[in-house]
Amino acid sequence: MDALYTAVATATHGREGRTVSNDGKIDLALSLPVAMGGDGQGTNPEQLFAAGYAACFGSALGLVGRQAKVDVSDAAVTAEVGIGKQGEGFALAVTLRVELPDGLDEATGRKLVEQAHQVCPYSHATRGNIPVDLVIE
């Protein structure tokens, strides 16, 4: 692959530290969520992954919509990223909730969502590695 763009960020002190992008546009305190025993005062890797996946999937949906000449510009994607114990370590699971624009029939919407799942880079990265459920709302 020839990268068109490379994002760079550095995290220090793990889940109880800070993450900063090389251009300074991201500079965030990190903390464990309350559900995992933390104070929840900062963001966490799962929130950052959810935000990135939702945005990327929304762009992929826009691409396949334009190719199909279907306006999905008002669609909204919510990514839920769960983390839990698996064996000796931890694992992730994702649910992508796609709210399609009013007036778009369910069959067309489902087809576009499934096509977006095939072209989205986050979907490529997760495929076969973690479960990703697609929910159309």
TrEMBL record:
<dbReference type="Pfam" id="PF02566">
    <property type="entry name" value="OsmC"/>
</dbReference>
<dbReference type="InterPro" id="IPR036102">
    <property type="entry name" value="OsmC/Ohrsf"/>
</dbReference>
<dbReference type="InterPro" id="IPR015946">
    <property type="entry name" value="KH_dom-like_a/b"/>
</dbReference>
<protein>
    <submittedName>
        <fullName>Stress inducible protein</fullName>
    </submittedName>
</protein>
<dbReference type="GO" id="GO:0006979">
    <property type="term" value="P:response to oxidative stress"/>
</dbReference>
<comment type="similarity">
    <text>Belongs to the OsmC/Ohr family.</text>
</comment>
<dbReference type="InterPro" id="IPR003718">
    <property type="entry name" value="OsmC/Ohr_fam"/>
</dbReference>
<dbReference type="InterPro" id="IPR019953">
    <property type="entry name" value="OHR"/>
</dbReference>
